[in-house]
Prior knowledge:
This protein is α+β, with helices and mostly antiparallel strands. It has a 6-stranded mixed beta sheet with strand order 16-15-17-20-19-18, with helices on both faces. Strands 7-8-12-10 form a 4-stranded antiparallel beta sheet. The longest helix has 13 residues.
Amino acid sequence: MEFGAVTVGEAAGAVLAHSVALPGGKLKKGTVLNTDHVAALGAAGIARVTVARMGPGDLGEDEAAMTLAHGLVDGGEGLRLSTPFTGRVNIHATKIGLAHLDPDRLHAVNAVDDMVTLATVPNWRRMGEGGMVATVKVIAYGAARASVDKAAALGRGAVRLAPVVTPDATLIVTTHDAGSGEETGKGFKAIEGRLTSLGMTLADTVQVPHEAQAVADAMGGATTAMILVLTASATSDPADVGPEALRQAGGQVTRFGMPVDPGNLLFYGALGDGRPVIGLPGCARSPAMNGADWVLERLAAGHPPTSAEVGAMGVGGLLKEIPTRKQPRGG
């Protein structure tokens, strides 16, 4: 692509690199100049303009952006592309789900050509209907076809939407005489709100004594696709009531604790039939983001995180302090 100032007579077919005010209206930056435009510029006494001219191996900015965007979502469902405009195409979710990205391949896309760029939300970010998952932007007025084709090939299918596949959940709440007294309607509503934002239903809430066997029996009696446990006392040991109840119910604990704050005191695993179980930290009583959200969302979409993946959440896992926390981080 050639870029520079030319006489108006040489400008036909080139892309105008700056806006020009004319008596009949403004010619906008990015306009592909035709003979009428050239005549209007000449009539206005404008002798030279700055333009970009595509070479035989170049694609215009809109075509280049759309080519790459099509490649990125190739074969995927739940995503739509915006109409290209000034070299930009946005990728939107058409339903609730999680952004399921291949970061290594997307890094490779951005390494092809400085003029061809891609920006995304973080991997596994929860998306609402219409949410923007990614945006492709061609910085110049065009890009080399070879670069665009290479980027599209490297990133083919690397942007996906993982839909929520878990319809409902049961919340098991434990009580004891020395309990914290935090089981308020607000806490339950915060948990229900998390499920609602994922398109899930809180189908049942069960209160049982703060004893492993009582919780295990409640797990066994639950009929929903997911089970949540909120204990009256914080789960502070791998052999505590919540995780021990999961083992007694015939399940397995995948991870106890996580390096995300708030949210450290979480455990999760699955029953013998594969249904996920999450032991919620006390901060789940607040609607503020916490580590449990990241695990809940992954499980709801049918992509359970491994213990190693949870361990990797520590970088970026220092979240905003919740105002209701009994023991703030301090100074």
